[in-house]
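dumping the sequnces here before i forget
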Amino acid sequence: MSRKTPVISFFAGGLVLAAGRAAWAIERFPPPDFETGHQLPPTERTAGNPGWYDALDITVLFAALSVGAWLVLKARSRKGVVGLAIACLVYFGFWRNGCVCAIGSIQNVTLALFDSGYALPVVVGAFFLLPIAFTLLFGRVFCAGVCPLGAIQDLVSFRALRVPEWLEQPLRVLPYVYLALAVVLAATGSAFVICEYDPFVGIFRLSGGVAMIVFGVVLLAAGMFVVRPYCRYLCPYGVVLGWLSRASLLHARIDPTKCIKCRLCEDSCPVNAINLPDERVDVQANRRRLVLGLAVLPVFVLAGALLGYGLASPLSRMNTTVQLAERMHAEQAGAVEGVIKETEAFRATGASVTRLYADALAVRRRFAWLTPTAFALLGLMVGLKRVRLSVPAWRDEYEIEASRCVACARCFEYCPHDARNVALLQQLTAEQRDDPEVVALTVGGIDR
Amino acid sequence: MLAVGVVMIRQHALLHATGPVDSLELKALRERLVDEPLDEPLKEQIRLTDRRLRETFLQRQRTLSTGAYLLLFGGIVGVLALKRHAHLHKRAVTPGTVALNAIDQPLQRDRARWAVVVMSGAVLITGVVVIASMSSPLSSAQLSALSVAHQRPIATTRTQATPDARQWLVNWPNFRGPGGLGVVPLEAQGNPAYPTAWDGGSQTNVRWRAEVPLGGFNSPVVWGGRVFLSGATEHEREVYCYNAADGVLLWRRKVDPLRRPGLEEPDVMEETSYAASTVAVDGRRVYAIFPNGDLAAFDFEGHELWAKNLGTPDNHYGHAASLIAFGDTLIVPFDQGYDDDDLSYLAAFDGAKGEQVWKTPRATSMSWASPIIVDTPAGKQLVVMADPLLAAYAPDTGEQLWRCRGIEGELGPSPTFSGGYVFAVLPDAELLAVRADGSDDVTDTHTAWASDAGAPDIVSPLADDERVYQLTTDGLLTAVRIADGELVWEHEFDDHDFMASPTLVGEAIYLFTTKGRAFIIIAGDEFVLTAECDLGEPVHASPAFVGGRIYVRGDRHLFCIEQPEP
Amino acid sequence: MPDETHNPTRRDFLRATVRSGALLTIGGMSVAMFERARGRDWVWQIDPYKCTMCGQCATECVLDPSAVKCVHTFPMCGYCDLCTGYFEPQPNSLNTGAENQLCPVGAIKRKFIEEPYFEYTIDESLCIGCAKCVAGCTAFGNGSLHLQIRRDKCVDCNDCSIARKCPARAISRVPADTPYLIKDGHPH
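..and the predicted 3d for all of it:
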């Protein structure tokens, strides 16, 4: 059994790697028959995370949400919520590397709805639905400390500055825009932008793109003073949970029968979720503004739809098929010089270029109706926000606004009715109890 | 805190001082070694450099990961310290001073409302800027025009059942009909009556006549009420689909696949045309090939399934061998150049996807003969002929079954088959009968006889159960007995030239002259002419016979000839 | 708890309706999801027949070193003495000297089996997935070396950052129960 050794001239000939794709079909050197009976080693297939990890993730999520609900609604314990946040940050963040997460799951759910070829994995579905179900029942306990992104931001905050409403309100428009973009791009199978621009996942993994890690660190630094900037001004999942929590069965509340309007909690909320009593509302003017606001609403919807109509084309360029079709066309038409890796790879497949154009057109058509729809809804939401601001509710009690409250449990510590505060106050003399400054210091100075 | 800062700076510095994998230093050293292959110290230097670089690289990887942990740890400590600091410097809550006053609320709301409007405006303006500056240069209308062949989903090819053996017989799937033998399977077709009289001038018995946009000498093929053919000029290549019932052009599609830059233009003779190869169908798809190596597949609705360029075949008259489908694979004969050029091959492609299923290299020269698929007791054989080989292959694997050497000349006529013999014409020389039950080299063992009577140069031979009929371009028709290779009779058609191959329809043989005149003769032991018709338009392609209708391609039109029942 | 059950307002009723509706929807979605998914999970993998060996797997992965490694299908290998996946295009001589090796991190081990065959194995702890050897083997050899995403390394990002950059669009989600697309000599 003898066989020619491949010759060096092979190289000397300077064979070009031109369109070297068909190469795999060629068996240039027949596999040998070993005289020594040498056994071929197997190609190793290392296993990934075992299947039960999914079940564990879902179980931990469910348990964490349950514990969170109990801590917020029953125990009313800020310390407990902090503990939960640390635990979930360690598990979902650092141990499980921040994937899968509920925020990103929006995209998977969208993709599964629009692409029949993609079946939603159970664990992703659970991460999407469980926090929603808990929000409908108990308010945003997921945001409180179960979400690793919320947890890491909450834990770094130490001196909260109050963001004035005139800044808070417009900034809260941004998550809607982000959500609209994320849904459109996921539904067309173009990109998962929420994952691509997740500022904290690099920190969880201790590796990743430098730019995004720096962005994450900047957000955390800002979060020391402006609590939870990502949750408030970017998080698209927060939009969903915020809306649903308006309809929640239970959530953190101020009991009007017990509230003595001591004003201690007023400034305790870092996310502007405690509404003050407002008795200066002109009901007549309200009615007028409501009619006007609703009349202007179609303008917002129309503006959104028009914007979406225009954005369909630039947004579709985030899709790789469209990118490739554009580039191929430019190369074919001679509008650009030379080829790029992508078109070279495409040419090597021998696939039909008209087919590529057809695929790109199909993607385009999806964008053409999805983008206006999503942006019309965005316009509607912004319009409604404006109507709500025009038509304030008449209120004679302190109220927690469910859609904003992230159930961080900070305010509980400031309430004189909090069991621990009751005990502390009882240790004071009657004289001291009359001094508001002493009461305030006893109940809890600001150390957020 | 300080520690965190130090780690941070160190980390930063390390990130930028990367141990280069594509080291220029190493590259330069290696290039020097190519010039001075015996320089031992240089080798040593490369080894040391390589070792140093790799050590730095691994070191960096380790430092990065420890650095990340240190940084995280520092961050945690820092946050804890800050929190402790805040806790120790508590301020008292002064109710009503820090929080906004209830009196301010209407004003705050007003401002917030306007701020939301301003924000919406900002989003809108950003959007408009994006639209103005980043819209795609390729509009949807352009995309639509570019991909006209694909606009509806390709449902038909997925839902249609695989055609059964009967359908392969009642249709006309490739050049010269089922198997490529030029024999109408009359019984399988249900014994329809084929026309014996027509006249193109008066349109007598011409069911329809349809213009063919681009010319070419390829033959029409027919399947399921659709007639397919192709046409081309030097710069354009197209595939056509006509409705068999009324001749309406259902669709025409351009074949324009991606081609390697700098592809050679094919040499094509006028007598060959830019579309000489007949298209093939498999009941669900139609395939076409052109002399520049363009190969394309469409479904019956005209959606392009795939298209590719195989490279321009080296052929000084122009590639002319026709395609043939076997089940769901397309078989492409690609003989070219000369037998020692190592260029020729026979390949099969997946019909739906266009991926190559098998490819068998052939040491053969260019050939214009088309492949045939014949039924033998041992199974189907794919028979291909090119100088110097007549060879049979297993159509599903491309494995060679047998070969007969000594085939010479510029092979125009395709082989045919009857009674276990493959008949091969050596142009202007002889007719060879080879038994198809051999293996390996059968040159000396399975050649039954050779006849030197009237071998043609272009027109393919035709065989019935007892005789092989040959027709030369200038009109000499000969019948040779299969049993012994003896000449049975011969007849000279004076002043008539022939390019189209003859077809056997039951007992009758249909012959078309280049002027469009048709002769119908009896297949038998003597020459009997039964009818003579005129189409009125030159004919260079072999007609298709399906369901009592004859589809003939003239130089400008496609004709459907049908004789109504009396 | 606020005492509002005895006098439900219109708003409370609305909220209850929305809540029940939403919860029912969630229930429905979960059932539909479990029906359809049946535990089907996805992981990222490279189709080696589409890969163009551009080298970005080494740099685009969120992990450093990348979760992409070179794997070897030994039955496809010709066991060549002059392995074009192992040696520089113009090797000085056919030995393991650094000046001859293609792999920048020295992750390929060359072992003599019998005349004239050598076996090449990948040390995955060193491999960075740069595809230099894959390019060499595919262009001039049998193409038995190819890239795969190692499941024990990959952190299963919801959106693979290499897939985003892959020019050949060779990286896609594959069912988790068949997580590898290891070359077997036949194109898929």
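DSSP finds 21 helices and two strands in chain A.
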